Amino acid sequence: MSEPFYAGRLFRPKPGATVAAGIVFVILVALGVWQLQRLAWKEGLIAERHERSTAEAIDIPGPGGDLAGLDFRHAKALGRFDHAHEMYLAARSMNGNPGYHVVTPFKLDDGRTLLVDRGWIPLERKDPAKRAEGQVEGEIAIDGLLRLQRAKTWLEPDNQPKDNLWFWVDLPAMTAYVGLGPDQVAPFFLEAGPAPNPGGFPIGGQSRTELPNDHLQYAITWFSFAVILAVIWFLYHWKKPEEENAGRSAASPPAGSRPAR
Predict the structure, then answer these.
(1) Cα–Cα distance for residue pair 252/45, rounded to 1 Å
(2) Is the dihedral of CA 50, 51, 55, 61 positive or negative?
(3) Which DSSP letter does residue 204 get?
(4) What band does 238 get if pLDDT is binned at 50, 70 and 90?
(5) Which long-range contacts (CB under 8 A, 24 or more apart) does 45-51 make?
(6) Handedness of CA 95, 147, 176, 170 (dihedral sign)
(7) Predicted local confidence at residue 146, as pLDDT
(8) CA dihedral for 245, 246, 252, 255, sign (positive or negative)
(9) pTM assigned to the model
(10) What pLDDT score was predicted for residue 51?
(11) DSSP string of 102-166?
(12) Which of these, 28, 51, 121, 258, has the minimum number of CB atoms within 10 Å of its CB?
């Protein structure tokens, strides 16, 4: 009967390998803990967005109000669209189809103007004449999600106001483009809700409230690496005496040999 695998094995950790493995182990565990912290933060942000976007619609805040807590807040407004000054957010797609988002000034009853991302149109509908039914006239009520100004990312091209092509919402630049002063335009914009427009375009409801949340998988990955490292470290130092002696003999030069010159 063969002896068990563990018979005669001794656990003799080497200081150098142990220190190196310990440092890497601590780093891996720290990365896993960091991802768990990121997970808690992301889940809180997702819950906050969901609560704001599904709450009862508020009226558009007045001038000088506190902007904190407005991002993704469900809101409603009453006013008139200024279709003559609509702008186009380029490189927008819907179900894989390329197009634009139409951003139109919306004149509120209090005299201010609110920029409204009315939604998506296909490339061939950029000309307003090809979606005339959707160019609603007169006073109307709209609703959607308020959005705050964000910084341009390095992946986004520069806006091209001269060509009326925009790749990100730049409130100050858009305000100047439509010929208004900073005090005349709200310091946020509205992404229109999914209510259909006459003629079908623009298609609203383009807000993206969901966020990618892979932090749990990342945490599991880092913790798994830490466990694997610990197992390898243990097995490496858990040897039979003859295996350890064989390793030493292989690393040592034969007796009587002289180093080459």
Answers:
(1) 60
(2) negative
(3) -
(4) confident
(5) 45/211, 46/210, 46/211, 46/213, 49/209, 49/211, 50/209
(6) negative
(7) 97
(8) positive
(9) 0.78
(10) 94
(11) EEEEEEETTS-EEEEEEEEEEGGG-SGGGGGGGS--S-EEEEEEEEE--PPPTTSPPPBGGGTEE
(12) 258
pLDDT at position 87 over 70: yes
Residue type for position 166 = W
Distance of CA 91 to the CA centre of its chain: 18
> Is residue 172 classed exposed, middle or buried when 0-12, 13-18 and 19+ CB atoms within 10 A define those classes?
exposed
Q: If you count DSSP H runs as helices and E runs as strands, how many of each does the chain have, helices first? A: 4, 10
Decide: 186 and 116 in contact? Cβ < 8 Å: no
Nearest Cα residue to 49 out of 78, 22, 76, 69 = 69
Q: In terms of Cα–Cα distance, which of 221, 231, 232, 234 is closest to 28? A: 221
Burial status of residue 79 (CB atoms within 10 A of its CB: 0-12, 13-18, 19 or more): buried
**Identity at 223, one-letter amino acid code:** F
Contacts of 10 (CB under 8 A, 6+ apart): 238, 239, 240, 241, 244
Comparing C-alpha atoms, which of 196, 145, 169 is closest to residue 92?
A: 169
pLDDT of 99 higher than 70: yes
Q: Nearest CA to 193 among 81, 140, 116?
A: 116
